[in-house]
Amino acid sequence: MRIADTQSVTGNRHVQCGPWKEAMLQNTTLILLLSVFVMPFKTNPPVICQLGDSASTYNAYEDQRPTADAMQLAQRVSAALKSACWPNCPSLVIFRNPTAPNAILLFDSGLAKMAYSPQFFNDVYAKFGDGAIIAIIAHMLGHALNETTPSEWMKSDWTTEVRADAWTGCALANASLSARGLRDALTAVSVYPSASHPGWSQRLQAVRLGYIHCGGDGSKLDSQAVSTKPK
Ligand SMILES: [Zn+2]
Prior knowledge:
Blueprint lengths: L19 H7 L5 E3 L12 E5 L16 H18 L5 E6 L6 E6 L2 E6 L1 H11 L1 H19 L11 H14 L5 H13 L8 H14 L4 H8 L6
Parallel strand pairs: 1-3, 3-5
Antiparallel strand pairs: 2-4, 4-5
The structure holds zinc ion.
């Protein structure tokens, strides 16, 4: 599979939404990963999570339809997390955008919006494969899950970044990854942190807890985590 950089925006349907949390809670069906049904936001809303360099160059008008490959992997993330968030699963809109940092998540007008750099996804896929893209999308969706889904199983003093990592672990438990895919997923999230992420050892604890919480075998994760580089 290739995360190709070939598609462009073709749709312009506008979605009307209320306040962020209210709108998210109205969606009680499943996680929706839309492609291009939203007009680009006129101004950049507050950044919730950012992997990579400064968001200062990000231009929402450059938002484009994600590739089919990226959407296919996003749907795998959605399916992997569905049982954990039902019936209050959030919605996430995904764009590719050449002005985006590696990946960025914003909340605006009741929607969680992710934009990824086509070059970043190309590079990550070339280095690490499907599992890595799945893990990065899962981290972004994890931030949205923080807003909709009770998570008493997480530690109360965890930051939102660590909580998103725990949801990443949950997704990895149900994403049907090979041992190699799991290792590549862990490596990718360890080497592409946000500026506010704590060290990898703390993050890995959260990933592991989420992995086990969602039915994964902790020993399987441990066996693949040993080769990831602490950050
Ligand atoms: Zn994050």
